[in-house]
Structure formats: structure tokens, C-alpha cells
């Protein structure tokens, strides 16, 4: 077959977790995409996170639930009774120095069932082996009629055109070079992103990179088995052991010198680093990866956008990598879909970087903070500081793993597509979700009296949640629909929602973040719509936020 020319509204490069979510988000909005993925169906080489297993935080699980993937991810993920503790030790043959408790999914669910004030998420976290998530998301891509999924195809080159992008892709088996012309391109091709390099977008790095090696192996040795209940075991000699989903299966990661190739005998390397004898039944894989704290200087050039690891890389110490990427993908996905469908304006596309890059910079700081805690632990232990003193210091740092507010509290303050509200926003908390409909933040999740999750009633596009009891939002929703905006009017008469949703009318975006709220329908609705749909260039710059208590004609 000769080389072909393809055209698409959106060309997605890379079908890791982030590319898969982006294509599925587009498809949810009825937008077709072409997705190319370099590795063929059965990848010969495991990726680094394949060896460790991924921690999908509760917010990612909520976003996957919208795509119909949460249930299947749980069914194939780590046992919900398994905790996700972080254990600190100094040699595997000695008792742990400190344990940061992280409850199991079961325990989290029980806890969440006792509250219904918007402070609990719809979904708790889930751990899942990387290859399993890969397989599930690839299956979803293969089955979706709106996704043209090409496995074993590599994006080799691209050029920006005034009205889109033209890319060259190489078909794996034949080496044929095809052309893809697309209105938009989403680079989801990971840390070494070819697209980012073609676009010459530099990375802003904080701190030097460090080469690491991850060895995955089977061992039923009791020395290790005592750590089987932990998610991460962090040893003072800079080794991290992950208990994988299957029994007696482990992944150990450690820094290695940049000029040293992969160890010929990885098990000897582990034993030498730990100065502990333990038996290894089988080595499952060895991979190298770069630890980096890097964020792209810009997320967009012309019609091309960077998403996920292509846009940011964090040390995998704090589980932010894939989670930041999944939220990027949803944010960009619905905005591209709105523009392609004709009701979204240019500010929507501009807002992607303005909303998501600060989150990456924030998460990079958190990763750096956790890295600093590990470095200090290693230094103190090397200096011979007593175990009880180390335990006391680590206890102070335990807040690091109790960080639900970090995952759920992202607020797009100052976004050009969020209606600005005068006054001070409610406080932000590290350890808990602050339930608020303050514009820019994720709306509070509440179970309705019958047990249905409010979030499950949201439409695919915007949802105007109407708590007025008089249906005052119906006319607004009709007016929005008249402009082509995809919107659902959702009248809710539920005391639990009423108690924490703070306003009679709340406009929720497709990503469950609040775009606008008020107690009256007597507002300049066209100005609101202009802004939240990304048409608010000149008109909404002139819009002055109303003062508290002031009503508009
Ligand atoms: C040891 C380790 C443990 C981790 N644990 C966690 C964790 O617990 N929680 C967490 O949130 N994050 C974790 N991460 C980070 C997480 O793995 C990444 O953030 C995540 O995989 C990023 O997803 P992505 O889809 O952006 O990129 P990737 O997963 O890297 O996927 C990119 C895809 O693009 C394909 N590709 C690349 N170039 C091309 C091209 N030119 N053409 C076509 N296809 C291409 C690749 O084959 C790949 O499938 C961990 C990382 C490491 C190294």
C-alpha cells in the first residue's frame, strides 16, 4: 500500500494514559481524532511506570468515571483492601523507623460514606499496574468509532501551518511515511516528546536531572515480605521499594551514576546498596529513567499543545505525574471539542496553558519538597542520627501523604474563561476538600437523597445546576443552547446540595469546575456566556465584577 494522507480535526501523538484520556474526552464530545502510538500492541520493552504501578488519585478516578472507565480500572487494579502506606527504614533487616499511614480504598470509601457535605470525593484513589491501565485504555481506543487508532505508528516530524499542522508519521512494519493534516495537534508523547523538540519548546528545569534504574523482580524472601503491606518503602540509602499488585513481586528504584550503563547484575546492585541479603527468584525487568523537575516554558505553539509528561515531569515521589496529565487531557479535550464544534472561542484555547501550567508548577514544588524530605532523611541517617530522632522528624512530615486538598483543590483563579467574583475566596486546605462553588474550583460532590451522585447527573457540556426551586435557570439554559452552547439545565431540590452549593444558579463546566454562579437570573447572560465559552476578548474585559449584594438589571 502506498503512503497515504490523512486528515483529522485533532491529531493525538502518543497513547499513554494521557493521550488515551484526551482522545476519549474528545470522543465524548463527538469529536473524531487520529491517535498514533509508537509501540505496537505488545510492547517489547516495559515502561518505567509499568514496573512500579501507578497511583491514580481520587480526582483522576472522578475524571475517569465521567469517561466510563473507573469501574473497569478498579476491577483490574490493586485489591481495594490493600493500604498504600509509605514506610521509612534504614536497612530491610530492621523494623521500620516511621510509617505514613494511607488508608485502603475500602477504608476511604467507609470514611466518605459517613459525610455528605461536599468534603468527600465521589471516588477514592486506585493503584493499578501500568501495563493494565495501558491495555484498558488501548482497548477503549480500539473500540471507539470516533477514534482512528494506529498502533506501531510514530510521529517523526511536523510543521505548523497558519490553519493547523502537517505531520509525518512512520508506519511501523512497512516504514511507509504518511502525512497527517490536522486542525489541532495534542502532543501526549511523554517526557522525551518528539513534538516538543520539533516545536523547539524548552523545558524550564528546577534542579539537575538524576538518572535512575528500576529493577522489577519476584522474591518471597521474608526480609521483603514484611513490607508487602506498604505501597512505598523508602530506605535511607536512596532506594525505594514498591510492593506491586501481585504477591511477592517488587520494584526497586535507585539513582545510578549518569555515566554508568545499566548494571550487568541488577540484583547484586540492590544487595550492595542495601547491605542486606535477600533471595530473588526472578528478575522481571530493568529500566532506566531520568528524575527531573521540569515544566515546558509554554504549553502551546500555534495549533499544537503539550499535554501530560510532554509538558511536565516530576520525580515520581509524590504521584503527581499521571494525575496532572489526566486533568490536563480533560481540560484541553473539552476546550478543543467546543472550538471544533463551533461554540468555543479562542480564549478557551488560550486558557489551557493559563489554567494547567500553574498546576504543574505547583506540583513540581510539591515533588521538590518531598524530594528534600528524602534527602534530609538520607543525610541524617548517614550522620548517625538516632532512630527515634529520625522517627520524630518524619512524623512531622507525615502531612505529605495526607494531601487530598492538593488533588481536589485546584482552582483556576484568574482564568480568562471563569467569571471573576469579587471578594475573598474561601480558604484552601492541604488535608481536606473545602466544599465551595467559588468560580474556578471543582464543584462540591454530593450524594442526592436517593443515593445518586450529583456529578453523575451532569451533562456532557456545561450544566446549569438550578437550586432556586423555581426553575429560574431554564430560560438561561435555553438562551445558551440558542447560541449553540452544549448545556444541560439541572433542577435540583436536595437539602444536602443546597447546604453546600452556596448559590441558586451554578454553571458547571464539562470538567466539573465552576464557571459562574449567582442567585439571580437577572444577569448579563450574554456577557457570562461570552466569557465562559472563550469569546470574551473585548466585551468581557470591560465587564466589572459586581460588588457583593449589588443586583443587576
Ligand atoms: C518509576 C516511575 C513511577 C511512577 N509512578 C507514578 C505514580 O504512581 N503516579 C503518577 O501519577 N505518576 C507516576 N509516574 C509518572 C507517570 O508514569 C507519567 O507521568 C505518565 O506515564 C505520563 O503519561 P503520558 O501519557 O503523558 O506519557 P507516557 O506514559 O510516557 O506515554 C507516552 C506515549 O507516547 C508514545 N510515544 C512517544 N513518542 C512517540 C512518537 N513520536 N509517536 C507516537 N507515539 C509516541 C510512547 O510510546 C508512550 O506510549 C511514575 C513514573 C516513573 C518513572
Question: How would the blueprint of this fold be written?
Answer:
Layout: E1 5-13, H1 17-28, E2 33-37, H2 48-52, E3 54-56, H3 58-66, H4 70-76, E4 85-89, E5 98-100, H5 105-113, E6 126-128, H6 130-143, E7 147-151, E8 153-161, E9 164-171, E10 177-187, H7 194-198, E11 203-205, E12 210-218, H8 222-225, E13 230-235, E14 239-243, E15 249-255, H9 266-274, E16 282-291, E17 294-296, E18 300-301, E19 304-306, E20 312-313, H10 321-340, H11 346-382, H12 387-396, H13 404-408, E21 462-466, H14 474-482, E22 487-491, H15 495-501, E23 505-508, E24 514-518, H16 525-532, H17 538-541
Parallel strand pairs: 1-2, 1-10, 2-7, 4-13, 10-19, 21-22
Antiparallel strand pairs: 3-6, 4-5, 8-9, 9-10, 11-17, 12-15, 12-16, 13-14, 14-15, 17-20, 18-19, 21-23, 23-24
Helix pairs in contact: 1-6, 1-10, 10-11
The structure holds flavin-adenine dinucleotide.
Residues 13-19, 36-39, 48-49, 52, 54-55, 154-155, 188-190, 194, 214, 253, 289, 308-309, 316, 319-323, 325 line the site of flavin-adenine dinucleotide.
Number of domains: 2
Mean model confidence by pLDDT: 91
Number of helices: 17
Separation, N- and C-terminal Cα atoms: 65 Å
Spatial extent as radius of gyration: 24 Å
- How many runs of DSSP E, i.e. beta strands? 24
Query: Which regions have little confidence, pLDDT < 50, spanning 5+ residues?
Result: 42-46, 538-553
Regarding CATH, which class of the largest domain?
A: Alpha Beta
**CATH 4th-level superfamily of the largest domain:** FAD/NAD(P)-binding domain
**Helix content percent band:** 25-40%
Alpha-beta content class: alpha+beta
Bound molecules: flavin-adenine dinucleotide
Q: Tell me the β content.
A: 15-25%
Quick one: overall form? globular
Q: What is the fold named in CATH at topology level of the largest domain?
A: FAD/NAD(P)-binding domain
How does CATH name the architecture of the largest domain? 3-Layer(bba) Sandwich
Main beta sheet:
8 strands, mixed
Amino acid at each position: 500500500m502506498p503512503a497515504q494522507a490523512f486528515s483529522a480535526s485533532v491529531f493525538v501523538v502518543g497513547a499513554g494514559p494521557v493521550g488515551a484520556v484526551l482522545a476519549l474526552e474528545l470522543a465524548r464530545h463527538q469529536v473524531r481524532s487520529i491517535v498514533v502510538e509508537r509501540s505496537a500492541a505488545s510492547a517489547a520493552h516495559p515502561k518505567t511506570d509499568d514496573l512500579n504501578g501507578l497511583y491514580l488519585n481520587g480526582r483522576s478516578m472522578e475524571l475517569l468515571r465521567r469517561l466510563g472507565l473507573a469501574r473497569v480500572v478498579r476491577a483490574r487494579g490493586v485489591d481495594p483492601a490493600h493500604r498504600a502506606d509509605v514506610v521509612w527504614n534504614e536497612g530491610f533487616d530492621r523494623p521500620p523507623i516511621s510509617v505514613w499511614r494511607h488508608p485502603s480504598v475500602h477504608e476511604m470509601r467507609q470514611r466518605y460514606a459517613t459525610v455528605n457535605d461536599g468534603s468527600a470525593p465521589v471516588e477514592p484513589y486506585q493503584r493499578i499496574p501500568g501495563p493494565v491501565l495501558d491495555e484498558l485504555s488501548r482497548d477503549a481506543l480500539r473500540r471507539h468509532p470516533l477514534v482512528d487508532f494506529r498502533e506501531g505508528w510514530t510521529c517523526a516530524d511536523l510543521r505548523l501551518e497558519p490553519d493547523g499542522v502537517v505531520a509525518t508519521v512512520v508506519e511501523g512494519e512497512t516504514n511507509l511515511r504518511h502525512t497527517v493534516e490536522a486542525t489541532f495537534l495534542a502532543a501526549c508523547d511523554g517526557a522525551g516528546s518528539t513534538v516538543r523538540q520539533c516545536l523547539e519548546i524548552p523545558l524550564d528545569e528546577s534542579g539537575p536531572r538524576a538518572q535512575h534504574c528500576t529493577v522489577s523482580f519476584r522474591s518471597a524472601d521474608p526480609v521483603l515480605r514484611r513490607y508487602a503491606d506498604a505501597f512505598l518503602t523508602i530506605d535511607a540509602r536512596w532506594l525505594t521499594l514498591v510492593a506491586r499488585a501481585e504477591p511477592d513481586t517488587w520494584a526497586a528504584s535507585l539513582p545510578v551514576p549518569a555515566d554508568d550503563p545499566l548494571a550487568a547484575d541488577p540484583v547484586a546492585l540492590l544487595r550492595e546498596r542495601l547491605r542486606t541479603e535477600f533471595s530473588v527468584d526472578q528478575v522481571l525487568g530493568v529500566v532506566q529513567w531520568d528524575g527531573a523537575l521540569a515544566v515546558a516554558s509554554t504549553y502551546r505553539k500555534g495549533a499544537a499543545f503539550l499535554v501530560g509528561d510532554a509538558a511536565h515531569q516530576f520525580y515520581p515521589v509524590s504521584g503527581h505525574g499521571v494525575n496532572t496529565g489526566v486533568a490536563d487531557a480533560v481540560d484541553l479535550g473539552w476546550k478543543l471539542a467546543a472550538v471544533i464544534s463551533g461554540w468555543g472561542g479562542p480564549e478557551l484555547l488560550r486558557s489551557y496553558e493559563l489554567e494547567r501550567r500553574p498546576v504543574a508548577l505547583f506540583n513540581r514544588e510539591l515533588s521538590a519538597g518531598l524530594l528534600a524530605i528524602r534527602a534530609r532523611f538520607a543525610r541524617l541517617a548517614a550522620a548517625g542520627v538516632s532512630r527515634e530522632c529520625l522517627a520524630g522528624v518524619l512524623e512531622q512530615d507525615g502531612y505529605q501523604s495526607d494531601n487530598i486538598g492538593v488533588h481536589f483543590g485546584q482552582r483556576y483563579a484568574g482564568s480568562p474563561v471563569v467569571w471573576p467574583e469579587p471578594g475573598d475566596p474561601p480558604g484552601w486546605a492541604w488535608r481536606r476538600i473545602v466544599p465551595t462553588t467559588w468560580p474556578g474550583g471543582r464543584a462540591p460532590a454530593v450524594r442526592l437523597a436517593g443515593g445518586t451522585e450529583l456529578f453523575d447527573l451532569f451533562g456532557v457540556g456545561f450544566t446549569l445546576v438550578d437550586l432556586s426551586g423555581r426553575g429560574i435557570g431554564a430560560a438561561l439554559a435555553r438562551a445558551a443552547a440558542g447560541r449553540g452552547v452544549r448545556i444541560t439545565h439541572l433542577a435540583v431540590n436536595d437539602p444536602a446540595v443546597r447546604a453546600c452549593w452556596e448559590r441558586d444558579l451554578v454553571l458547571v463546566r464539562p470538567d466539573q469546575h465552576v464557571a459562574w454562579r449567582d442567585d439571580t437570573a437577572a444577569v448579563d447572560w450574554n456577557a457570562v456566556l461570552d466569557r465562559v465559552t472563550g469569546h470574551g476578548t473585548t466585551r468581557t474585559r470591560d465587564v466589572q465584577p459586581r460588588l457583593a449584594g449589588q443586583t443587576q438589571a
